[in-house]
Automatic annotation (TrEMBL):
The keyword Oxidoreductase applies. This is Phytanoyl-CoA dioxygenase family protein. The lineage of its organism: Bacteria, Pseudomonadati, Bacteroidota, Chitinophagia, Chitinophagales. InterPro entries: Phytyl_CoA_dOase-like. Keywords: Dioxygenase, Oxidoreductase. GO terms for molecular function: 2-oxoglutarate-dependent dioxygenase activity; iron ion binding. Its cofactor is Fe(2+). Gene3D superfamilies: q2cbj1_9rhob like domain. It holds the Pfam family PhyH.
Length: 323
């Protein structure tokens, strides 16, 4: 970054990258190397997730982990920029789970991460539509006593927006394995419809209350999402996922990017958990979420030109709640 560059405190004022952490494609042809294959797109449609996609180099992971140290000990002022911030959200008193939403507003690396070309290309293909940032999240488990993230569907927490046309990208900031509490997915669960909230950081299996016996049996076929650091998985907003405790000697840190189709509306009029939203940006009922807090990340036709007709992508009508 230019030495004289003095960013304003709230980085949401910058609706494009502020540094050069990611080299951006300049032509349609340069986007091609980030393109998911037909096979990957089909696997997402079928299973509700895909993984093994590199988003960050080791060096970039290093930059983000340095910034993460700062984010985990922010001052009062910066803390106000987060939509949600819990140094320890674990319900088990012997465990720790750092969970924060909004880090992209606070440090340049997390800000620029949302413009990672590998992230943007894959998200465009899996949403099948131009999209905006909904928000980012940090889920960090320390070594030895890292807490769980209970089985859940992301969209059960997001019904204050509509329609359901969202996508989650989970990016490891450590090598994630079953030993240090990697994420798990339940394949095909994105076809089970929307389930109610059953808690995020307490009883791992609370979701059992709202599943049929047959569905619960399918949990036995859950898949560990083991990934080297810098690599990502993508999941549908209804795919059930969760992660167990970390008893290992390594931390398990991750950054999550949540995208929504451009044109997504606010839907909080009848939302029952308004308290949880008090620090979120304004989202008026039936109004397009297009303020600076929801930057437009990829338009597709503008960047891809004629390539747009060749890239494999999801038909939104078959996986999301859109006409
Ligand atoms: O990192 C975790 O264990 C939970 C992540 C999660 O819930 C998500 O990516 O939606
Ligand atoms: Fe989640």
């Amino acid at each position: 970054m230019n030495q004289s560059f003095q960013p304003v405190r709230d980085l949401s004022h910058y609706s494009s990258p502020i540094a050069d952490m990611f080299e951006q494609p300049k032509t349609a042809a340069e986007w091609e190397k980030y393109m998911l294959t037909e096979h990957q797109v089909a696997a997402f449609r079928e299973h509700g997730f895909i993984n093994g996609i590199q988003i960050l180099t080791e060096e970039q992971v290093g930059i983000l982990n340095e910034e993460l140290v700062k984010l985990q000990s922010v001052n009062e002022e910066d803390r106000k920029l987060f939509y949600h911030y819990e140094s320890n959200e674990a319900e088990d008193p012997g465990k720790v789970l750092f969970h924060a939403i909004g880090g992209w507003r606070v440090t340049p690396g997390f800000h620029d991460l949302i413009w990672s070309p590998a992230y943007r290309m894959a998200t465009y293909q899996l949403l099948g539509h131009p999209f905006r940032l909904f928000h980012d999240q940090l889920f960090c488990k320390p070594a030895l006593h890292g807490g769980v993230v209970a089985w859940h569907q992301d969209f059960s927490y997001w019904t204050f927006t509509k329609p359901m046309h969202h996508l989650t990208c989970w990016i490891g900031l450590d090598d994630a394995t079953t030993e240090n509490g990697c994420l798990y997915y339940v394949p095909h669960s994105h076809k089970w419809g929307l389930l109610p909230i059953t808690g995020l950081t307490g009883d791992m299996t609370a979701i059992k209350e709202v599943l049929t016996d047959e569905q619960f049996a399918i949990f036995e076929k859950k898949i560990p999402n083991e990934l080297p650091k810098g690599y990502a998985s993508f999941h549908h907003p209804l795919t059930i996922h969760g992660s167990y405790a970390n008893y290992s000697e390594r931390p398990r840190r991750a950054v999550v990017l949540n995208a929504m189709a451009d044109g997504t509306l606010g839907n909080s009029a009848n939302y029952e958990r308004l308290d949880a939203l008090h620090n979120f940006p304004a989202m008026e009922q039936d109004q397009v979420l297009d303020s600076r807090f929801f930057p437009l990340l990829f338009e597709g036709d503008r960047e891809l030109g004629a390539l747009i007709n060749e890239i494999p992508r999801i038909d939104p009508a078959c996986l999301y709640n859109v006409e």
